[in-house]
Write a structure and sequence with these properties.
By secondary structure, the chain is α/β, with parallel strands linked by helices. It contains 16 helices and 15 strands. Helix 3 crosses helix 4 and helix 15 (391-399) runs antiparallel to helix 16. The protein starts with a strand and ends in a 5-residue tail after the last strand. It binds guanine and zinc ion. Its EC number is 3.5.4.3. Pathway: Purine metabolism; guanine degradation; xanthine from guanine: step 1/1. Catalyzes the hydrolytic deamination of guanine, producing xanthine and ammonia.
Length: 428
């Protein structure tokens, strides 16, 4: 049955430009499989005339917007947000690996997975590409939780068979057997997707990396996720481990781990050949500004990414990242765009920041037209935003003279309170 929602409506056109209807109408209806999709969207005057009699929910003063897409986050790091360290490598050793070792226990995995998924939704994130840990139980727990909520979610078992302590280090052969079993068990079940997940080049033997590449070729519509060029010490370490590789990114290319649906977090210390490689292979970067600022990793070069035109989108990278909130991530991206002097003038436009965390992120994941937008055909994952939820937000958004000013007020002042509701597309 058709359902309609009347409120202000934010969408994006095919080039990522915002389309805003002050008095809008969103009509959703089940497709042939029963999945709720956007049937029509636009101004109330136009859309209502095409759907006489549709049951309409009025949401005065609210904005309907696409659910946010987080391109890189670690659910097992929920409990180590805000753990300070002089840099990435000591942070991994002192906080990350001890926290992740607890996910051998399915009960712990399940408890954290439920909290994490609820926290994503409270913050308006309806899809994420998520690291689990090296334990199979951690993957099962997150998939089961997302499946129960009807969410589109992508995750995978972390591969790390060297330079990792007891408790998180896996065994080469078994890790690949487990990965293939998990792909067969979960990939494309309901709205779930599998990501082949080598943690980062220093933590996998050549045999494990080769095996990951072989699985990525065999299961061509799975995702691949890893980290690259995040931190100067990490980059030096990779240079020692792979003296023959042209660059850190090239190590992944050599193992067949760059292709559409491959996503690398950070991508800070890249050169021009690396950027060209990303573009040619249609591999995406997950830009994680709160993490890069918190761990002192560096500044993503937005200007060069735009000039070369490789795919990228925004990500929280919790727990290196400091917030689940896409508003905080967009704000940090704005600071970085200016701080790095990679964008002339005013850093990144508010509507572009928003696009990079919704439709642009979906496109970088190979999910254009599926999620991250509210155009007809998209799955109906959307947010009900209340731009008057705090006194200051109410005051600022009321005074906005343009869409950009209104979006900026929400980016600067917004957090989970702004998200009144996240509506997940239900199956029939
Ligand atoms: N590189 C390898 N593992 C990690 C991780 O868990 N977080 C971040 N930020 N970088 C990594
Ligand atoms: Zn990460």
């Amino acid at each position: 049955m058709k359902k309609a929602y009347r409120a202000s409506l934010l969408r994006f056109d095919a080039s990522g430009k915002p389309v805003f209807d002050e008095d809008g109408l969103l009509v959703v209806a089940p497709d042939a499989t029963g999945r709720q999709r956007v049937l029509d969207a636009g101004s109330h005057a136009d859309v209502a005339a095409r759907h006489p009699g549709a049951h309409t929910t009025h949401l005065p003063g609210r904005i309907l917007a696409p659910g946010f897409v987080d391109m890189h986050i670690h659910y097992p790091q929920t409990d180590i947000i805000g753990s300070p360290a002089p840099g990435l490598l000591p942070w991994l050793e002192n906080y990350t690996f001890p926290a992740e070792s607890k996910f051998a226990d399915p009960a712990h995995s399940n408890e954290v997975a439920q909290f994490f998924l609820d926290e994503l939704l409270r913050n308006g994130v309806t899809t994420s590409l998520t690291f689990a840990t090296s334990h199979v139980a951690s993957v099962d727990a997150l998939f089961e939780g997302a499946q129960r909520r009807g969410m589109r979610l992508i995750t995978g078992k972390v591969l790390q068979d060297r330079h990792s302590p007891d408790g998180v280090r896996d065994e080469t052969e078994q890790s690949l057997v487990d990965t293939e079993a998990l792909i067969r068990k979960w990939h494309k079940v309901d709205r779930l997707g599998y990501a082949i997940t080598p943690r980062f080049a220093p933590a996998s033997t050549d045999a494990q990396m080769r095996g990951a590449g072989e699985l990525a070729a065999k299961y061509a519509d799975t995702w691949i996720q890893s980290h690259v060029a995040e931190n100067r010490d990490e980059v030096s370490w990779v240079r020692e481990l792979y003296p023959k590789a042209r660059s850190y990114l090239d190590v992944y290319a050599g193992f067949g781990l760059m292709r559409e649906r491959a996503v690398y977090a950070h991508c800070i210390y890249l050169d021009e050949a690396d950027r060209a490689l990303l573009r040619e292979t249609k591999t995406a970067a997950a830009v994680s500004p709160t993490s890069n600022l918190f761990l002192g990793s560096g500044f993503f070069d937005f200007g060069s990414a735009d000039r070369v035109g490789y795919p990228y989108g925004l990500a929280s990278d919790v727990g290196g990242g400091t917030s689940f909130s896409p508003f905080h991530t967009m704000m940090a991206a704005y600071y970085v765009g200016r701080e790095g002097q990679t964008k002339a003038g005013l850093s990144i436009a508010p509507s572009e920041l928003w696009w990079r965390h919704t439709g642009g992120a979906a496109r970088a994941l190979g999910l254009d037209g599926v999620i991250g937008n509210l155009q007809p055909g998209c799955e109906a994952d959307f947010l009900v935003l209340n731009p008057a939820v705090t006194p200051l937000l109410a005051r600022k958004t009321k005074q906005a003279n343009s869409l950009e000013e209104m979006l900026f007020a929400m980016i600067v002042l917004g957090d989970d309170r702004l998200v009144e509701r996240a509506v997940i597309s239900q199956a029939g």
